[in-house]
Each structure stands twice: as structure tokens, then as C-alpha cells.
Design a protein that fits this description.
The structure is a homotetramer of 477-residue chains.
Chain A: H1 6-14, E1 19-22, E2 25-27, H2 37-51, H3 56-59, E3 60-63, E4 68-71, H4 80-97, H5 105-121, H6 125-139, E5 143-146, E6 169-173, E7 177-184, E8 195-198, E9 213-218, E10 224-229, E11 252-263, E12 267-270, H7 276-313, H8 319-344, E13 347-348, E14 354-355, H9 358-383, H10 386-389, H11 393-396, H12 399-408, H13 417-431, H14 434-444, H15 450-460, H16 463-473
Parallel strand pairs in A: 1-10, 5-8
Antiparallel strand pairs in A: 1-2, 3-4, 6-7, 7-11, 8-9, 9-12, 10-11, 13-14
Helix pairs in contact in A: 1-2, 4-7, 4-8, 5-6, 5-7, 7-8, 7-9, 7-13, 8-9, 9-13, 9-14, 9-15, 13-14
């Protein structure tokens, strides 16, 4: 069918029986658990957008693999124009909804890597992946990328760890499949998707060949356990507080694989450690381009909020406010500009997909993500100390205290105090809450850290050419 | 007695009957309200330190006003050495306890301002303040500085606001006292102190003379209402999570004055708008010196946490980690160095107290507070994404999930997983929680904003002298 | 002919008789003046590249206006691909030769503006410009853009100045042409080009309509005087010192128009002040995109030099060196990425040329130009204090002192001291010379200042849309 | 006599016969060489200030060593107050004269190091140094610190270099003295001083014991050769251009020691490699405190110039100008504040001199020196492109071109064009000249690089204490 409805999605979840721990207990019904309320609301939106004619143009695509319209999540981008269109939707969408699930680009990356392995080794990973892709597209399934390993002692390679399971690995190869052990971290929303799709988290050497493994399995495959934390927002929706975190956010999981059997038709890499280099080489520009886009879009939200609260506070014309907004705009444009440039400089991979430029994508993201952290403070500065000292909504909703609040938390004449309160709660939600912590983490840790960006820029920038130029200018042989 | 015990303090609170709203209701017993648990724990510490011989040297002082030992809160600093010693205690203390209640320097400031007014006008504000001081010292009372007005439309002066009460003001002058109307924001911990002590929040012009008012009254004076929000931490203490915010933090209030009568003996300024300039001129260096110290000390905490988690993660020897720690150390030293320098450059006020240098105090704070925001992200980067995706303590305390957590969230060999969890929860508390939002707010808004620092540097830097030097160098007449 | 040789170019100059002051005297033969040696060497290169089959592909283009191959200087870019190819040549070229004469994009800008005026006013400026274009292309002439006015008191509009000539203006309108008075600053290389081509330097209001004037005239038109300063390099070429500034650089002029007559066929704007807004709107993205490209390419030179001297000094593997190089690479990629993005976001103007995106072009340039200044210091830090304390070439060429220099200025074994000296002189030329001053000026002043970039970002960023998004997120009507 | 006159100084120089190469030749009379004009003018000033009653209070001191008044150069600072007074003079002086010869603090450093060695080893270096000190004081001699070695391959220790002379070393120990070979770089003004005073440039290990050598000898000691470059300014003074570099600046030398004999009484360290650690430990805070002061004072000059040119240009009231000035002021205050703080935190060395705090001194300098580089660009931005494109003074002094210059380079009404020209030439001298290159080098290389500052902060910051605090906060054992 290509496009599922959110109702069908929830029904499909109800049939799955993943092992999930949260709130100190084992959950049997994720669909009705308060801990999953926000995650489900978020997931449903994507189905709804695909089914809504006002948004369908952005969220559905013609797939030539199954010759049907498919969703944003399951579409393979095959040209620079496809990729550009994808990030343009992310830029517009995240400026209103914070996240566009950029993990989906993992599929593009594996598309290329499996092609490389097959060509070099005569394996059939690419065909298996294509079959998996068709299944995803046909049923409009969701999947969670399991990339990051727990990693234990970061100064040691996977096989050198005291506990060999600290990176996900193959512990047994059988005729019909493999058995894996280990865990993946940061597997956002895993229990409310249909598949968990893994790949190695870094470049591996020969000693670590058992760690070079990629596969996809249904989320309720025996042996998988999800140790889960709720989305940052409140368990029940609030009236004034948490306008964002009450509706947007992800359950996060530690996903444990305890001797899980994976049939061969769902294995996409098994031992080919030499190709983890390609994996990272392709993953890096995709994820950084997306995060650069995302960071720019989220910066746009901070800018909008800062500009609006300055209007409500009567400071919109102050030169320092305008200067601060300009600083934020510059960072947003740089993040977005470098994402666009990485697409503009992309090169085609023989598997039929473009690989964006890594150096510029990493450079742009590096800059904008670090500025983003500072802007959380800038937004508080522009809004004022009231962001963290304002009365909770219990006091606003209490008749006895409301009149004083209305009188004293008023901003410029003409703007109702309630509007200002709503905006201030929004800013509180962004900058002084557990959700704000997620925004920070998302800026500095998700999709690799700033330090990773630096490594990638250094690795991909053509330094020998620049040295040759200088030698020529100096007339050095 | 000069020094009270924490038990006596709690008993003294029980006798007060302030009007307090919190959690949607009116509270009658702050001492036993769960909303005030953290605030009270914090307030009691200062009494305990003064009574503990290991810490008494830092927290008690000989006062020549009453010829007894008095507490950190009520001591008047009369020499640069006194002031330096005060900030040295703050530097050491805040690196372990986050806050040293720097609002107390407000007393020093009013000491000087009242002196100025009396000398120019023949009033007797200074004697009244001295009497109030003696009362504070003798009984070891606590007070809350009410400085910030709600301010409504920031582009308009107090008297030009649509509602004249948006800045606290005198509405009636009587023979025995004055009647005031308005509110003060950010009156941290007010309901658990003994006095609320107000002063204007900015420089005023003649049109705003009714707003030039300073006074102190018991917190349960009729007409005062506290619309209150709890400290950022959890209402009940937790086992692993919130090691800081479970014990440190302030109730914040919107303190409303609805036709409150203030007897003349407690009025320290009433209409002398010309002296609001002095007030700001003295307040600025004191509060910025303290905040520069505090920001440095809190940066020290981030540094300690970053260094320790890098040990637990096995990254302590990575050059980029060392470089990031160095960046943080530099900012800490700059904040602290400029605070020390502002004392070293202080000048004596004729009232007998030193006024630290404003330009260097503001410059140092400006730098270190903005860096602090970025370091919240740096700490998360060094700790890793796990800070926001780690399981909640409910999963750690659940036998069924604990074994997997112990296995997979382990860092380097030799450090128990529980130690790493404790540190990660600490980092979560600092960077990804409502308490982290308070740290941000405290860095960018408390004691004036970064923009205020810029204004003060520009105002206090001797630009004409520098222009003269340049003219001389250029041989311009 | 479309493409001229450098010999023909020099011959054509010999026929021109501009009024030129330099070195305290009036020059009669620019072609043989030592003051113009460097400028001419630079100008000739462009002719040579166009005639050299190894470089012709980058420096010649098919023009459909005259249906011949034309030069880099005179080609009209009509598609985003054309513009992208132009900046790609600039990026590669400036990383070896510092400057690609981006002033040439002024022609593209006037192409669009004259079209706008004609369409609105029924004038025939566009046809005149096209005719001028054909003349330039057919003869491969060079021109100098005269944009910046002296501006006197920057707080006053042109017509409000004490001296009305402080902006170039029309003083008389005649049947056959106009008479102009005033001056243009920073008219680089004007006396060694064929035409001086002017336009207003800012947005004008109706009161300043006489200042809304654009035209092109031969450089030796009566009434024009060039008060000139030599290129920053030495008057005579040196052996070791000044490897760059001895061969690259521009004569700079104050070009005075003292009642100069301009025939109508060479006038492209005369009084249409409303269109100065369009002029700036088109000029801004073109020049910032070019300067962003240029700044990136020059940063590449600094990176190459820093990397090479670190090899010569034996510090190439130090982590802080690698980190500093990475900082420089990031800035270079951001400058270049935003230039590419501004092309990728360009929109077609009805006159048939693309207008790049202004906001992203300005943002990228803003960032990279300010970083560039800092990198001049970084390069010195990496090279060492020897850059400014090393013996002059007179000592290196003196037998008596050479042996000690060879012995003591040696770096790593295997690199001859002379190679290190050459590189150090190169770095000296870039960072500690009058030419280094030009590089700084070029980074911060040429093509508008950083402050202008900020203004343009603020003006072009879609702030109302971002505010709407936030209102939606806050559920504000 | 304690204080010499400048006439006596010049006469004393005439008696010295150092071997000096400059301008391609061997110089026999430094006093009358045009290459030394600027250096001598600079050196004489210090003698004149000491003899001028208006400045004597800052430049002369009572020495208890010889019980006479002695000069700024030869005075030993024995209390924190002495040191503070020294940097206060530097701060005031450098804001008008750029340099206060902070190399003089080297004497203080050796005072402490020789004391340490003697106490541990029973040597008599300290008495020898004291005797040398008395000689300097009594005769008011000048000396040049020779610290930096050529260093060859920076990745190798001194004794591991291909050429063992790449660090200055003892090649022979004789009964009456030692013979040394090698060179020192950056020995500013050496040929116009009386003594060259050397010490090791870094911490040494046992293998490098021959490199642990410190001594002082007359500048014309046989075997010493000065390969010299002129001060950055013009050989002959100019009318308008180079108002600073025409009068301020140093000859720089490569000082070669070719088997130079040093009598024991002038040797202050010979083989005690373990004490090079103390040397650096004491040198670092002294030199960084001075350079922090100096950088602040030079920033003050940039601020004065920027403020004045903004007045002349009519932009003084623009908010972005004020904001840029404020940025510069903040950096100046931080540099100065941290210098003051390092004195305030100084500890007494048993030899009787204070050692300032290293961490804060390095932190403040690190910040302000890097900002200084950027401010060179800021100053150009505020002044405008005219700084590098303005006509040379030859055109200003030429009647034929002067009228146009007067008309078109005018700024605001009321300021003569000549005043603006003078200021613009001054700014050119600071930011677009070889002297500007010296300012950059002085900011990033002199007294150790920014990277050295980082190393020192990391080394001196009490990290273990901060980790302990965090463990306590986390309740970790």
C-alpha cells in the first residue's frame, strides 16, 4: 500500500510484543502506556502528514522500487535534487516541529555500502537490503537505527574491552543465520517502530571483524530487551506549561541483544571490517548535512522566540537585541548554507545514490551546533530572568493568584498577559527544562560530536593540494 | 546573640505568617511544606556552617557594630581585605555548594548610598539602616533583596507605563510612614527569610521620584503576597538522580505589595531619585564581582565533572579533551582573576566601605558567564549522549533491568558502573534538567545581563584618556 | 577579436594619457613607471591565461552577444551554472594568485538594474549598457568599477554634506550628455584599465537624486585625475623577500572627477534614485559570494603555509597544530560553502541573469573574513617569532653572514635552510608587511564591511515567517 | 651613579665594538648608523624619563643593594607592591609608548633560580648574580635577555638535534670559565645595550645538561656576532607617515656565539638542568603578567584610535561602533585585570622576591592577545578602506595633488583634513605596515605563544581539587 494511516500504525504496534522496561516495571502495552504518549503522538504525525493532501507533496514520493507512492521514511533519495528536496523539507519542518527523523538517511548509506561489499566480495547484501527496503515501502513500516555501541573504555578497541559485548558482535555463525550479543544506545523510539536496523558505530580493524555486523529484525525478536526512559516532557499534557515537550520528544532506549538470532536474509554485513571505512565515509556527510539543516531550523525557532518576546517586552528596537538576533541568523544561515553546499558538491556513488560533500557538511554543522548552545542562553537573556522564576501554571490557573499574575507579568500594552505567559512557558520549555537538555544533547552529541566534525574536516580537506600551491608561490621545488 | 542555630531558625520561621501561594494553593506552614524542603535545607546550611568549628572561620566575623561574632549574611565588609576574603570564601564554597547568597552585598551598597543621601540632604537614612543592621546582626536574621521590578514595557520609564504599579512605588506619604504598591520579581527564598529589603532596580529621573524607594519589612507584613514556584529539584529526594537539585535550589517568588504600610524607621530612600545613580554605581561592581567569582566556581564544578567523566570513559588522555578542559580553566581563571582585580582596584567610600572597580568586574563576568553556557554543552560532549538517554533511576533500582545496565553502562575497567551512573546523573542534573535551566538563567540573567555588563564597561572605561594618548601619538593638537 | 594578448594590452595602454599623480610627481608613461610594475604584471596575467591553452578553458567563454570567445572579465554570467563556474575558478585561482578581480561582477549587477529601470520608466539604459558590453567584449577591454564615494561625514546624506561633491553627482544635464563632479575611492588599478565605470555606493532617497548616477568613460577622459599610491610590494623585485607582494598587488587611486562630461550613450542611470535599492540588493549577494570565495581561497593559502612551516619546524604532528589547521579549514569551508549555497539558492532576474541569495552569502563572508584576520596571527604563531625577527635578505645574500644563517635558521634535517627562509619570507610577506595590511583591509573592508554583512543578513532573513512558526508552536492566535 | 643620562649612554656605546651585520654590510658605528636611529631614540627615552623630574617618580627607585636611586631597568622588585607598581607604569606607559622593555623581569627570575640552586647545591651563583646586579645598577647599564634558541627540529631535544649547536651550550669547562657555542634569537636591541644575558629557553632533562647554562657578558665579547635587521620603521623620519614606527621599534638580531669564553664570575647556571623547571616556573608568570599588561595597554591605543576616527568619520554614535569599542574595552580590562590578579595572588620566594600567580596571568594574556589580533582588523573596519588605499605622503605634500586630497579626504565638518590624514597614517602604521607585523608578532609570539599559555594554565590549575569537589557532590567515595 506504500502509505499507512496512523490508525493502522497503532493497530500494527498493538500486535508487537517487545520486552520493554520503563518506570520501574515491564510494560505490556506500549500503545496505551502514558510513558509512550508523546512518542506515539510524534510518530503518528508523520503518517498523518503523508495522508493529508496539504502536506502529502512533502511527505510522499514515487518509488520505482515498488512503483507506488511511499513515505518520507522509506524513500530512497537517488539524485542530488532528491537529497536537496529532503533537506528543504527538514529545514521547513523542523522550524515548526523540531525533528524530521534524519536517522532515515541510514538506509541510503547502507544502500551504498552493501553495493561496495557485493562488488568486491561477490556477496548478496545489496539484494537483501533491497528486499528489506521493498518490505518497508510496501507496508510503510518504521525502523530505528541502532548505531552507537556502549563502548566501555573509549581508549580500547572493541575486541580489547574487558567485556567483549561492549560493542555489538556476532557470537555464532550458523547455516540459517547468525547470533549476536551486545547492545545499542540512543535507540530513540525503538519500541514504537517495526524494525531495529543496526550497523557498526566506527571504523574497525581486522581484529574486530566480528563487530562488523549490520542487520534488521522486528522489534519484538526474542532476546531483545528495551530499557527505556520516557520522553522529556510531562506524562500528562498541561494547559500552559510544556507547549513543546508535552507533544514532541522520544522515548530513549538501551537496546540489549542477548543471543539474538538473525536470519541470513536480514544480514547486510558480517565480518567485512574493511568496509566500515566506507560506511563512515558515507554516513558522515549524510548525517551532518541533516543535522546542519536541523540545527539551522531549531536556531530559527530560537530566533522567532527571541524576536517575539522582545516585541512583548518592548525591547524589539534596542540595537543590542537586533545585534543578537543577527548573530543567531548568521549561525542559522551558515548551518543551512553548508548543508546546501554539501548537496551541491555531492558525487554519485555507483550504486545510484549521491554522497554529499563531507568536509563542508561537517564544517557547517560544527559551527552552528556550538553557536546553538550559546543561543539557548541568548534567548534567556532576551526574555529575562522571569523564564526561570515565573510562577508555575498551578498559580496561573488558581483564581486567587491569577489577578496579580495578570497585572504584574504584563509586557507591552496591547498584548494580553496570557500571550506573554504562553511564550515564556515555551521559552522555559526550550531552555530551562529536561527538554532543553535534550536540545543541548541533540546539538552536541547526536550524529557524532563536534570533535568528530573536526576530525572529518581535517580528513577530507585537500591539504596536500594547498601545500603544493604554497610551494609554487614560494618557488620551492 | 549574633549567631543563630538552624533549629532556632526553623522555629523563628514557624512564627511568621506570610501569604504564600504555591502548587495551586495557599500554604500555611512553609516549614513543613514539601515545596520548601530544598530551600530550607539550603538556608539551614549557612546556620550550620557558622556553628561548626571546622567552617566557622569562614562563616563568622567580629562585628564592631554590636561587638559580637556575626554571620556571613549580616557582616559589613569594611576593607578591601574583608571583601577579598568574602569572595575567596565564595570561590571555595560555590565550587562545592553552587551558591553563597551574594545578594547579601546589597547591604554594603545601601550603606554607602544612604550615607551619600544624608550628607547631601540632611536626612537620617544611614542611621536607620545602621539600626536595621544591628537588628539583623543581633538576631542573625535573614533577608531577601527585592530589586527587580516587573517593568512592563521596557521601552517606557516607570511613570510612563500604562499601569503605574509596574515598578514598586510610594502611593502615600503619611506622618508615621509610607504606603507602597507594586511588586518585585526574582525574590529568591523570600518566604523563608525574615525581612524583605527593597531598592530601585535602575537609574531614575525626576519624573519617577515616587519610584525611588528603599525599605525593609518583615516578610509577613500585611499586604504582601508571595506567588511562589518550587526549587527546580524534585519534591521528594531521590536515590541516584538529582544529587544536586535534590538538595540545592531556591523557591522563587513574585512578591506583590498591595498597599503595604512601611514605618519611617524602616525607610532608607524615599524620593531621592538623583541617588539612584549612586546606587547602581555601587551595586554594579559588588554584584558583578560576586557573580564573576560564582561563575568561576561553577565553571570549576563543570571542569571537575568533565575531567572525572573523561577518566571513567577512558578519554582522559585525548588531546581534544585536555584542550577543552584548558578552555574551561581559562574562562574560570578570567572570571576569578577579574573579581580579584576589581577588589585590588577598589576605592574607599567615605561611609567606610570599599567600592570595587566596576569596569574590570563587569568585563570578567561578561566573558566568563557567556563561556559558562557553552561549557554546559562541552560537558555533555565530553560525557556523551548517554547523559540524556540513560535509563531513569527506576530502571537502575529495578532488579529485572539492573544487570543489563551494570553490564552495558560500564566505563573503564576498575570503576564500578554505579560510580559512573552517579556521575552521569550529576551531569544530567547540571545540564539536562530544570536545575540546568536555573544554572543558565543564573549565568545570563542574575545580577544583570551580559548586556548590562557591556554598558557598565563602556561607561566606566576612561575613553577620553585613551583618545588623548592617541592624539599625542599622532601629534594632533 | 574577443581575446587580446598582453602585448596588445600594453600597447593599448601606451596610447592612453590619463592624468596620474604618484611618488610626488605627475606620471606620463604608466607602462614604464616602476610604480606600476606590479599592477601591470598582474593585469597581463589575465590576458596570458586567456591565451594559454592550459588555462583558456577557465578564462575564456563563448559570448552570444558577439558570438565570439570572450574573457573572464567581460563575460556575462547568465545561469546559476555560469556563476558557479565563475566562483569555482576564483576559488582555485585565488588559492594560488590571491585575486581574481571580482569587481567584474559589477557588470552583471548593472545588467539587471538597467533592465529594471527601463521596464519601469521606458528609458534605454539597458540597450546602452549592452552596447558598452559588446565594445568591452569585442576589444577585450578592462574596466575599473568606481563605487565608493568619499562620504565625508558618515552621519549625513550626500546632499546634506558641507561639500556637495563628497559623493559623485550630476552637476549639469545637457542635450548630449551630463557633467559630473566628485570622486571615487579605492579605484584599484584604474590607470592601467581602459574604462572607469561608476555607480552609486548606497541606497539613496529623493533628495539625493543627483547622486543616482552610473556611467562608463575612457580612463583618460578630460577632467579625471588619479591620485595614486603604489602596490604594497617593493618598487624593484627582490631575490628572497616579497615572493608575493613583489608580483601581486594593485595601484590604488583616489579618482577625481572635476566637471567631467559624459555623453548620454555612456550613461546607465541618471536620477532614478528609487533603483539604488535594487542596485544594492543585487550587488550585495554578488560581491559577498565572490568575497566569501576569495576569503576561503586566501585562507587555503594560510593553511598551506601553516602546514608546510610546521613540517619544516618539526611540529606537524603536534595536536595543537593539527587543531589550529582544523580551525582554519572549518572557516575556509564555511566561506566556500556559503558562496556555493548562495548560488544554489539564486533566483533568476527577468533580465536573464541569476541573483544569488544574499543572506547566506553575507553570513558566510561575515564569518570567514573575521576568522581570516585571526588566522594571520595563527600563521605567525605556528611559524614562530622568527617571521618578524629574521635577518633581511641583504644578510642572507652577504657571504660574511650567510654561513651563520644557514647553520642557525635550519629547521628539520633534510630541508635546506634556504627553503625554510623562502617560506618564512613568504609568511612575512603575508602577515608582517604592507601587503599583509592589504590582506587585512581586503578581508574587512573590501566589498563592504562585516557590519554591512550583518545589516544584509538581518534585512534578508525571513523573520516574520519564523515568528509565525513560534506563534503556532505556542498556540498564540 | 645609579642613573645615567642619554648622552652618557650614547658615549658608552661608542666605546663598544660589537660585530654587527646589517643592510648587507658590517657596521662599525652603531651610534651613527641610520639602521639604529629608531632603536637609539627608543633607548634614550628611558634615560631621559629617569632624568626628567616629571617622570622620575615612575622610572627611578631606591635600591638597597647599592643604596642609590636606580633605573626602571635595573631595579629588583621585592614586594607585591613593587611588582604592582611596575606593571602600573607599564600599563600607563605602553598606552602611549607601546613598550616598556618587560624583558627586564628576567633579572628577577634569575634572582630566584640562582638562590634555589645555591641552596640545593652549595654553588655561589646567587652572589655572582648579585654582584652583576650591583654593576648594572651602579652604572645604569642596559642588557639584552638572550632566551630563545634556534631550536632546529622542534620535535627533538637539544642534544638530539643533527647539529648540537642549535641550542646554546657549554662546549668546554675551564678553570677560569666556560666556552659556549650556539645562538640566541629575537635578541632585540642587543647591539645598543651593554650586556647580553642568557638563560635556557625551556625545561631540560639530564641528557641536555650542557644546555643548562646562564651567563652575562659585554656585548662586544670576542666571538659574538649580531646578524641584525632594522626596526620596522623607515630609515629616515617622515613628515606624515609612520608617526609611530618612525620613532619606536627595535633592531632584531640573530646573536651567534662562536666559541665564546665566559669567565666563571659571570656564569649563573652551568649544568643544573633540574632547575630549568624552576626557571620556567618563575619566568612564566612574570613574562605573562607583563605581556598581559602590555597587550591591554596596546589595546587601549587601538581603542583610542578607533574612537577618534569614528568621531572624525561621523560614526561615533552608531550602535555598532559603540559595541565594537566595548568589545575592545572588555578585552583590555581582562588582560589588565588578570595581570593585577596574578600580582594579588603572588607568593613570596625565599630569595626575597614575589612570584606572581601563573595560571591567571597566562589565562588573561591568552585571551587578550588573541583578541588583539582581531582588533587590528576591527580598527581598520572602523576607520575604513581608506587606511590602505589613501595616497602616500608624497601626494599630500605635492601642491599639485594636495587640494583634491584636502577636499575629498575630509571627514566631519570642523576637523581639518590634515588631522584626519595624520590619524589615518597612524592607523596605517599600526595595522598595515611592517610595524603592524611586529605588533602581531609581539602579540602572538613574544614571551611564549598562546599555546604555551594553555599549557601553563593546565599545569598550574588545581584540577585534583576540583575533581575531589565533584566526587563529594556525587557522593563518590
Amino acid at each position: 500500500m506504500g502509505i499507512m494511516t496512523s490508525e493502522a500504525y497503532l493497530a500494527s504496534l498493538a500486535k508487537q510484543k517487545p520486552v520493554v522496561y520503563i518506570g520501574g516495571e515491564k510494560i505490556h502495552d506500549v500503545v496505551h502506556s502514558p510513558y509512550f504518549r508523546i512518542s506515539l503522538e510524534e510518530m503518528c504525525k508523520f503518517y498523518d502528514w503523508a495522508n493529508d493532501e496539504r502536506t502529502a507533496a512533502d511527505f510522499t514520493f514515487r518509488s520505482h522500487l515498488i512503483d507506488e507512492r511511499v513515505s518520507f521514511w522509506t524513500h530512497l533519495r537517488e539524485t542530488p535534487e532528491d537529497v536537496r528536496r529532503m533537506i528543504e523539507v527538514m529545514k521547513a519542518q523542523n522550524a515548526r516541529h523540531f525533528c524530521s527523523m534524519c536517522m532515515i538517511t541510514g538506509l541510503n548509506v547502507l544502500w551504498a555500502v552493501t553495493y561496495d561489499i557485493d562488488r568486491a566480495r561477490g556477496t548478496c547484501y545489496h539484494e537483501r537490503l533491497k528486499a528489506f527496503f521493498r518490505e518497508l515501502q510496501t507496508n510503510d513500516f518504521r525502523y530505528c537505527m541502532g548505531v552507537m555501541d556502549p563502548k566501555g573504555d573509549r581508549s580500547l578497541a572493541p575486541s580489547a574491552q574487558a567485556d567483549p559485548d561492549l560493542y555489538l558482535r556476532v557470537v555464532e555463525r550458523k547455516t540459517d543465520g547468525i547470533v549476536v550479543n551486545g547492545a545499542k544506545l540512543h535507540t530513540s523510539n525503538a519500541p514504537v517502530t517495526h524494525f531495529i536496523f543496526t550497523c557498526p558505530s566506527g571504523v574497525l580493524t581486522e581484529a574486530d571483524r566480528d563487530y562488523a555486523v549490520s542487520f534488521a529484525v522486528p522489534v519484538d525478536t526474542p532476546g531483545i530487551t528495551y530499557i527505556t526512559r520516557p520522553a522529556p516532557g510531562p506524562l500528562t499534557s498541561r494547559t500552559l506549561e510544556n507547549p513543546v515537550s508535552g507533544h514532541i520528544g522520544f522515548v530513549e532506549c538501551l537496546t540489549v541483544f542477548d543471543h539474538v538470532f538473525i536470519p541470513w536474509e536480514r544480514v547486510f554485513m558480517c565480518g567485512e571490517w574493511e568496509f566500515t571505512k566506507n560506511l563512515i565515509q558515507y554516513f558522515s556527510p549524510y548525517v551532518r548535512m541533516c543535522k546542519g539543516t536541523c540545527t539551522s531550523a531549531r536556531t530559527d525557532i530560537l530566533i522567532g522566540a527571541a524576536a517575539l518576546i522582545s516585541q512583548y517586552n518592548g525591547t524589539a528596537r534596542a540595537s543590542h537585541i537586533r545585534s543578537k538576533l543577527t548573530d543567531m541568523m548568521i549561525a542559522s544561515e551558515i548551518g543551512w548554507g553548508c548543508a546546501l553546499a554539501s548537496v551541491a558538491k555531492s558525487v554519485m556513488h555507483p550504486s545510484g545514490i549521491p554522497i554529499p560533500d563531507s568536509s563542508v557538511a561537517n564544517a557547517g554543522l560544527y559551527h552552528s551546533r556550538l553557536r546553538f548552545i550559546g543561543f539557548l542562553g541568548t534567548l534567556q537573556e532576551i526574555a529575562g530572568g522571569i523564564v526561570t522564576t515565573m510562577p508555575a501554571e498551578t498559580e496561573c490557573l488558581n483564581e486567587a493568584s491569577r489577578a496579580y499574575i495578570d497585572k504584574y507579568l504584563k509586557g507591552v500594552d496591547g498584548v494580553p498577559t496570557e500571550d506573554r505567559l504562553k511564550l515564556l512557558y515555551f521559552i522555559q520549555d526550550l531552555t530551562a527544562s529536561r527538554f532543553g537538555g535534550y536540545l543541548t544533547a541533540s546539538a552536541v552529541c547526536a550524529g557524532g560530536t563536534p570533535e568528530t566534525n573536526r576530525v572529518e574536516v581535517f580528513r577530507n580537506y585537500d591539504l596536500p593540494q594547498k601545500i603544493r600551491n604554497v610551494k609554487e608561490l614560494c618557488r620551492l621545488a
